[in-house]
Amino acid sequence: MRLSLGQEMRQVQKQILAPRMIQSMEILQLPILALQERIEQEMQENPVLEQVEIDPDAAPEESEEPLEPTPSEPVAESEREFVIDEAKPEADFERLVEMDEQWPEHFEEHTRPSRNRMEEEAERQHDAMANLTARPPTLQDYLESQLAWFDLAPDLRAMCERIIYNLDHNGYLTTKELRDLLGPESTEADLALAERALAMVQKLDPPGVGARDLRECLLLQLTPGMPYYDELRTLITHHLEDIEQNRLPAIAKKTGYSLETIQAVLQELRKLNPKPGADFQEEFIPPVTPDVYVERTDDGGYKARLEEGRLPQLVISPYYRRLLSDPQTNEQTREYIKRKLNSAQWLIDAISQRRNTLLRVAQAIVDHQKNFLDKGPEYIEPLKMQQIAEKVGVHVTTVSRAVDDKWIQTPRGIFPLKRFFCGGTISAEGDEVAWDAVRLKLQEIIANEDKQNPLSDEDLMHELAKHGIQVARRTVTKYRKALRIPSSRQRREWSAVMGKSASKLATPPAGSSSVAEGDAGLTSSS
Questions:
Q1: Of residues 129, 209, 117, 204, the one with CA closest to residue 167
Q2: How far is CA 373 from CA 298, 299, 434, 473, in A?
Q3: Residue 237: burial class (beta carbons within 10 Å; 0-12, 13-18, 19+)
Q4: How far apart are CA 250 and CA 505, in angstroms?
Q5: How far apart are CA 376 and CA 410, in angstroms?
Q6: Full-model pTM
Q7: N or C: which end of the chain has fewer CB within 10 A?
Q8: In this predicted model, what pLDDT tens digit does every residue of 130-183 receive, in sequence order?
Q9: Closest CA relative to residue 316, chosen from 325, 307, 308
């Protein structure tokens, strides 16, 4: 390759997206709520756009001006699509001031809200603020409010607050050692003060807060007099790993407890909270507004329709059309109106194209997944975006943008549109089986297994083969872990007879599989 600093001329061909095409792709990818915000923003920035209130129950009037002229009607010169000369500079603020001075009545009517409208807007905003949910107290706020009831020395109170604000969202102390919290220059007196403060914090509600690991968190929740207090303390202190791996016979051999006693202790252990601070975390669930609705037709099929009630009906202002065709309008104002008219027409066309593309894509998906809608999720069929793209006649990236962050309301519930795209495998009969159907069948087999002799991943693979689903053992293991299903050893339910026969096994056999889902659900720490 030749390297030089000289200048040269080359003729190349490049595919460059026009601004109109870029805007169409952006509008297509927006969900309905984001599109509504985009339209409101455009209406604030572009005075040419107007919103038409249409009653869906009322019959359309003949005098209504159509959004786009039909081919059979003559199109006036002022209503044709305007092409803007991009080389000319954009109109400045002085032109708007001049227009306001020339047509004060129009701007008074169209841009300045009336007094009643201002009062209605103020009342609406006041109601919206009044209906806002109050911010729930955080874990730190709750603990600090409890400290106010104690008469503590200033240095001890400050250390307690320091510990409180170093708790994570589960209520655990983020540092395992107090010296790490104090810093390298801390003295023994500072460490003693921190230990007193930590003991004080650990006495607060909720029980278990301020612990440095799972074992300490569970021990803090034990109170003398509760059922199986001594047994709980023994199991938590020395046998948490055995509980996690469901090695109950090993626990019985080491402690001398009967298997019935251990199972009763585990029932009490499940009542403890391994994450005492998690109840103060408010999980934000974004609202879901379907873009597409599916309705059953009289012939037993399904028809997709778009949610358009939230979107305003946009038209180009007739006033600005007349103003543009007026010979008395100066050139600067004419250029400004042309630019705004062109931008408004682009937006209207992009919304119309989005409506058409999304409806065709959704209908193609519904037609392909009719068994899913008729019988349930276990009958979902494998589907790729390329199949829908070929059926609709668009590029696969267009399908990806059309279904991105879109939801569909079906008789089976609300689903994201991407939910209907999934791969699959070939059954023994040669039919395609979706991976979602494989996972559902795997859940069904595990739910109906003998809990005292649960199926291993190898056995699950053979059971799936009996149902005509040929998958590898590693695929079964991957799906089981994805479904948060414990291994066969952890799913096993021990009986007294089995416990006596298996009590000699103090440790599990080598090579046994395990996952981090314990029998008591207590393997999650800080």
A1: 209
A2: 15, 15, 15, 31
A3: exposed
A4: 6
A5: 11
A6: 0.59
A7: N
A8: 555 556 788 888 999 998 888 889 999 999 999 999 998 889 988 878 878 887
A9: 325
pLDDT digits (tens, 9 = 90+) for 38-75: 888 888 888 888 887 655 444 444 434 433 433 434 44
Structure tokens at 444: 């069904």
Domain range annotation of the chain: 20-54+81-111+284-422, 139-201, 425-493
Burial-class residue 10 by CB neighbours within 10 Å (0-12, 13-18, 19+): exposed
CATH level 3 topology of 425-493: Arc Repressor Mutant, subunit A (1.10.10)
| Burial class of residue 52, CB neighbours in 10 A (0-12, 13-18, 19+) | exposed
Residue 208 zone, left/alpha/beta (φ > 0; ψ -120 to 50; rest): left
Q: Which of 236, 199, 244, 196 is nearest to 218 (CA)?
A: 236
Kindly state the tokens that stand for 123: 């009342």
Read off the tokens for 129: 């603020």
Beta-strand pair 432-434/424-426? antiparallel
Tokens of 173: 């102390």
